[in-house]
């Protein structure tokens, strides 16, 4: 069965309108298991399709929802870059022919696509923090370069930006009509795909995309840890997690057989094929409906794809159970979560700068943050995934503030570690800001089963 046939079969087997449109609270796209929208057993093709995040109808979301007596104060958005070309090439195969120019009459399309290209092609007229100022502002190669953002990736974030604009600007008036540069905080890693994703989201979001007000800071670390990146204990957890991954792979005889078959097709050692991370390239073929690679000895096929994708799913499940990744995540995510609550506290005190913050990042940025927050059932970050932190003020009690956490439009606040028991202890309809502050300042270290009370000590303790 070719990829297109599989996708069509999937459309008939799974209620796509429920999975993608979110028509009701039961059918809304969820990160938690939902029997209404998901197959009865784990389906690697279904999971891969969700990962692709192919733009279709505009999704509904739960961003910006709160009791009427709450006022939106600030919003912080952490995104994964959009759809990209593979980072790895499968040896002895032809690269997938994906066009990375932006063309209005090619799907997927967004009404702001032409405006985005026109705006970006003129150049920013202002400098970003080095080395970002030397990067292209939009993808523009007839044959994509490795890791390059695609038109799909741009449209995904134009769509994200439009959705957030309708909610946060049109409905809640988060930014004043005469908004200034200091009311935005923008940060990205030094990859063109993250910079371009951030620009696309902003172009969809802002009513007046004025280059004079757009300044991206450069973040050298994918963990967005700024000056707090040295953490030996975090690295020890990561080494143990990588060892766990290796041992799980060794136990999977079907996976090893599949890699062996694929290696014979391309006539290279199995070890070399595995090192080329073939699933990264195969996902590109799958998401763009391009046939899998072939040689004179045969073709990679959907069964190969399913086995490797299913192993990834099983790996994520064991990762949650073993909790080594949780230790890595708590220390890996602490710096960016600390920045998040610092910005919230300043906003709660009445500061009007950095009302909207955008971090344009990677799957390896979002994944530890989701884990650290206790969102263990959250799916691995899809292309153009978004994790949003909202800060709200109670108009009836202006000194009280509340937070909401949303992942891909789903309110997951009461699934987090810091607020999952809130309803048992309080009648307040929103999660108090102090819950999140207490979690980041204290409870994250308690969760590490250590006596540490601060980030430095937790990173340097003995005997992990």
Automatic annotation (TrEMBL):
Keywords: Glycoprotein, Golgi apparatus, Hydrolase, Membrane, Signal, Signal-anchor, Transmembrane, Transmembrane helix. It catalyses: 3-O-[beta-D-GlcA-(1->3)-beta-D-Gal-(1->3)-beta-D-Gal-(1->4)-beta-D-2-O-P-Xyl]-L-seryl-[protein] + H2O = 3-O-(beta-D-GlcA-(1->3)-beta-D-Gal-(1->3)-beta-D-Gal-(1->4)-beta-D-Xyl)-L-seryl-[protein] + phosphate. It is an enzyme of class 3 (hydrolase). It is a single-pass type II membrane protein. Residues 1-18 form the signal peptide. One of its GO terms (biological process) is glycosaminoglycan biosynthetic process. Its EC number is 3.1.3.2. GO terms for molecular function: acid phosphatase activity. InterPro entries: Acid_Pase_AS, His_Pase_clade-2, His_PPase_superfam, Histidine_acid_phosphatase. It is found in: Golgi apparatus membrane. Pfam families: His_Phos_2 (PF00328). GO terms for cellular component: Golgi membrane. Responsible for the 2-O-dephosphorylation of xylose in the glycosaminoglycan-protein linkage region of proteoglycans thereby regulating the amount of mature glycosaminoglycan (GAG) chains. Sulfated glycosaminoglycans (GAGs), including heparan sulfate and chondroitin sulfate, are synthesized on the so-called common GAG-protein linkage region (GlcUAbeta1-3Galbeta1-3Galbeta1-4Xylbeta1-O-Ser) of core proteins, which is formed by the stepwise addition of monosaccharide residues by the respective specific glycosyltransferases. Interacts with B3GAT3; the interaction increases the 2-phosphoxylose phosphatase activity of PXYLP1 during completion of linkage region formation in a B3GAT3-mediated manner. Belongs to the histidine acid phosphatase family. This is 2-phosphoxylose phosphatase 1. The gene is PXYLP1.
